[in-house]
Every structure is written in structure tokens, then in C-alpha cells.
Design goal:
Chain lengths: ~250, ~250
């Protein structure tokens, strides 16, 4: 029952959010700011995680190949497929839920409990549209670039560890990452990225927007937002994979 | 002028406001007083439309606010200035950006016109050189003054102040009270102040309404409040020994 109530309230909030902005100039400005805050500021953590992700996948694949019948370029192939299909779009989305989602929830929650949202409403501004819409658009626009970059860094991380530690030769790894490449795999990853970008901005925004009380409640909203967003991402990851890959 | 007609508000089974009928006159400082939890803030939120009343009307110049469509409500809201208890300044923006915000959203003014208006409003509340400061860098009194400056930036017809003196020292409280009174008379606007500060009542209470347990129990001027024999009002007004002394000295017993 509580779940249905949340779904209903979330849907109503999204209906108010997706309205024509009060001022297009201000809306554009906010999108750029949010792209910087939600996207570019996350670049260092994404880069660090991606490089180690690619490196670990490469080492694990390489050490698990015992048979001489399996060619060494399989390591490059496995690293590419793992990074493009799963690690970059899903794991990075989960990392972003922790970083960006909690920040969105606590920012909007604090605005709620300090009456800043009431101030917007009294001025005649649709507060949900003003606060949430630019964040969703910014994440949907910037996340595909971040994830693409994460894929490149992940594969490069694998290359560095493969060649640097002598696990396999550079030519084998290069051959492996080019082998049987299907553009559809990238599109599939991008579809997931866009859906997850919506989830990791809208759900934390929802929990922040309906916060009531004080600083303790802001903290609780933030925690709930991260937990719920992560679960929704994992469920959608399964459903999208079932729908798009099988 | 703002008028409420048979206003009721309930949260679940609890009735918070009961049959509130009152008028807030233009060009006057109208005070809503009452103990904590008496329904003052709920009444104000019903008047500005943040909460929908269970029953009754809120009339702005004769038109029922809660019966208006979205666009009409928006037009009314553009004419409302609101000073929140905690200031409710946008803490990610500087003082200048806070004041400029409604101008950016609702006017086509040039950057220079907007800056002139910002400086005029800051000057009006006796604040200079704070344009580039963030709310976190301001004192409580400065925040209230910036809040007032933001509230008047759009030249409002209706000014609401929610406990403007809470947390302020007596000197700053008087300064804020006088500022509210001056602005009300200068711009001939309808001002509604929620307070439980008796100093404010005596300083600026041109029309005072007393709320007790969600009901309007008494209405009158600041002079009349000292003379009333209404038991609840007397208990509220003369709760402090300071006010009791005033009453005794004035031989109002």
C-alpha cells in the first residue's frame, strides 16, 4: 500500500515537474550549472573507478584462462564486453547514485525544511519544475558522455595492466578489443545510461522534495533515496537486459 | 485588502482553524497574534495559498484566491512579498542574486535596471556593501533585512512577515518593526505580521487579531489590547511580569 502511495506521489510530482519552464533563459543557465555539478564534478571518481575496473577484469580473465586452446586475445574481448555492457553503465550509475543522488536529495530536502521551496511557491514559481527538471535534463544529457568516457578509460586501464605486467601482448589485447564489435552493444549501454540518469535524479529529488521536519529527516531522506534508487536501477538493469539483449 | 470568510482548516480529525472571518486593511500593519500552536502560521499559509482551506474563502480585492485558476493565482502571487521566519534566502546564491531572482523570473528588465532595483531595496533596508555575500555570512538581523528587501523587490501589494523578530536582539527587533511599518505606509500595501512579541504589538499593531486554539477571539488596535478584559487575551498579553508592570502603571486593571 505504501509502495503504491509512493508511486502515485512520484508520478504526480513528475507531472508537475515536466511543465514549461517559467523562464527559458534561467532554465538553460540551470541546465549548464547542473551539468557541471552533477556530471563534470563526478569525472575524477568515474575515471578512477573505471581504470581499476578495466584493470581488474583484465587480470581476472587472464588468470582464469588455463587452456592453451583459448586464444590470449580473449582477455581484451572479455574486458571490452564487460566494461561496455555492464560495468560502465550499471556500476557507474550505482556510484553516481551515492554521489549525485544523495546530494540532490539533501539539497532539495534542506530547501524544503528551511522554507526555500515555500518561498519559490509564494513567488508564483513551480518549485518542482524549477528545481528538478534541469537536474533530470542535465543528467540525461551529460551521463552518456561520462559513461562513454568511462568505457574508454576502463578499456585503457585493462590495456595498461595487460601490457604493463606482461599478462598478454599489446597486439593480442588490441585485436581482442576490436573483435566482433557490435554497435548495438553500445546503444544498449546508452539506453541503460539514459534510463539510469532519470532514475538517479528523479527518485532522490522526490525523497528530498517531500522531506518534512529537520536535519535528521534530511539525512534519512538522503539515505532512503540512495537505497531506493540503487534497487530500482538493479531491477531496471535486469528488465532492460531481458528486453534488449535476449 | 484581504478578507477571509468562514475559513476552516483540518488536518485529519484535528481542526486547526475554525470559522475565521477577518479583514486585513490596506495601508495598515495587520498583526496576527497568539500562542505557539494557535494556528497563526496555518492561517497565513491558507491566505497565501500554500495550504488549501477545508472550507471558506480567501478574498484578494474581492476575488476568491482558492477558486482562481493557475494563471490567476500566479498573478496574485507576483504581488505577494513574504518574509519567512528564518529568512528562507536561497543559500546557493549571493544577496544580490537572491534579490535579483524574482526580477529574472518575471520581468524583462535589463541587467542595469535589475541591479539598480537590487541596490535600491538594499538601501531601503539600510544594508550596503553586502551584495556579494552569501546568506551564511550574514547575521540573523541582516538575513531578516535581506528577506524584507527580497520581499519588496517586485513592488508587492501584499507583504507577509512570519515572526520577523524571532531570535533578534531588542534593538534590531525595533529596527525591523519600524522598517515594516515604514514600508507599509510608504508603498500603501496590505501588511500582515504574525508575531507573539508584545513589543511588536505595541510598536506597530494598527490592527491586531488574537487567535486562540484556531478561533479568532479578539480584534482591535494596540491601544484597545491594553484595555480589553477578554480573559484569553489578558492571559496572553500579560504573561510576562514586564507587561504586568505596564498594566499596573497604566492603572488598567
Amino acid at each position: 500500500m505504501k509502495l503504491l502511495s509512493h508511486i502515485g506521489r512520484f508520478t504526480l510530482l513528475m507531472l508537475i515537474t515536466f511543465k514549461r519552464p517559467e523562464s527559458w533563459k534561467s532554465f538553460r543557465k540551470r541546465i549548464v550549472t547542473e551539468m557541471n555539478d552533477l556530471g563534470l564534478d563526478s569525472l575524477p571518481i568515474i575515471a578512477v573507478i573505471s581504470v581499476f575496473m578495466g584493470a581488474v577484469v583484465t587480470i581476472q580473465t587472464s588468470t582464469n584462462i588455463d587452456s592453451g586452446f583459448i586464444p590470449l586475445y580473449t582477455v581484451g574481448f572479455a574486458a571490452r564486453q564487460s566494461v561496455i555492457l555492464e560495468f560502465s553503465p550499471t556500476i557507474i550509475a550505482l556510484i553516481l547514485v551515492g554521489k549525485v543522488g544523495s546530494s540532490i536529495s539533501s539539497e532539495i530536502g534542506t530547501m524544503r525544511v528551511t522554507e526555500q521551496i515555500d518561498a519559490l511557491e509564494i513567488m508564483g514559481i513551480n518549485s518542482a519544475n524549477f528545481l528538478i527538471f534541469p537536474k533530470i535534463i542535465a543528467a540525461v544529457l551529460i551521463n552518456p558522455f561520462l559513461i562513454t568516457l568511462s568505457m574508454a578509460i576502463g578499456i585503457a586501464g585493462g590495456y595498461a595492466v595487460a601490457v604493463g605486467t606482461g599478462l598478454i601482448g599489446a597486439s593480442d589485447y588490441e585485436y581482442g578489443i576490436q573483435l566482433d564489435f557490435k554497435m548495438y552493444d553500445y546503444y544498449y549501454a546508452m539506453i541503460k545510461t539514459v534510463v539510469f540518469a532519470f532514475v538517479l535524479t528523479s527518485i532522490p529529488a522526490y525523497f528530498g522534495y517531500y522531506t518534512s521536519g529537520g536535519s535528521v529527516e534530511v539525512g534519512k531522506s538522503s539515505t532512503t533515496a540512495v537505497v531506493v534508487s540503487s534497487i530500482v536501477i538493479l531491477i531496471l538493469n535486469y528488465l532492460l537486459t531481458q528486453l534488449l539483449l535476449i | 485588502m484581504i478578507k477571509t470568510v468562514d475559513l476552516y482548516k483540518s488536518f485529519g480529525e484535528t481542526e486547526v482553524l475554525t470559522e475565521i472571518n477577518t479583514e486585513f486593511e490596506r495601508g495598515k500593519t495587520n498583526l496576527i497574534i497568539g500562542a505557539s500552536g494557535s494556528g497563526k502560521t496555518t492561517l497565513t499559509k491558507c491566505i497565501v495559498g500554500l495550504i488549501k482551506p477545508t472550507k471558506g474563502k480567501v478574498l484578494y480585492e474581492g476575488k476568491d484566491f482558492h477558486a482562481m485558476d493557475f494563471q490567476e493565482k500566479k498573478e496574485i502571487r507576483k504581488k505577494i512579498g513574504f518574509l519567512f521566519q528564518g529568512g528562507a534566502l536561497f543559500d546557493s546564491q549571493t544577496v544580490e542574486e537572491n534579490l535579483q531572482f524574482p526580477l529574472d523570473m518575471f520581468t524583462n528588465q535589463t541587467a542595469k535596471e535589475k541591479l539598480d532595483r537590487v541596490n535600491f531595496c538594499l538601501d531601503r533596508v539600510n544594508l550596503k556593501g553586502v551584495n556579494k555575500l552569501y546568506p551564511a555570512e550574514l547575521s540573523g538581523g541582516m538575513k531578516k533585512r535581506v528577506g524584507i528587501a527580497r520581499a519588496i523587490a517586485m513592488k508587492p501589494q501584499y507583504l507577509f512577515c512570519d515572526e520577523p523578530n524571532s531570535g533578534l536582539d531588542p534593538k534590531t527587533s525595533i529596527l525591523i518593526d519600524n522598517l515594516i511599518k515604514e514600508i507599509t505606509h510608504e508603498y500603501d500595501i496590505t501588511t500582515i505580521v504574525i508575531t507573539h512579541d508584545m513589543n511588536s504589538v505595541l510598536e506597530i499593531g494598527e490592527n491586531v487579531m488574537f487567535i486562540h486554539e484556531g478561533r479568532k477571539l479578539w480584534e482591535g488596535s494596540r491601544r484597545e489590547i491594553l484595555e480589553t478584559n477578554n480573559r484569553e487575551v489578558v492571559e496572553f498579553v500579560y504573561a510576562s511580569s514586564f507587561m504586568q508592570t505596564i498594566r499596573e502603571k497604566a492603572n488598567l486593571k
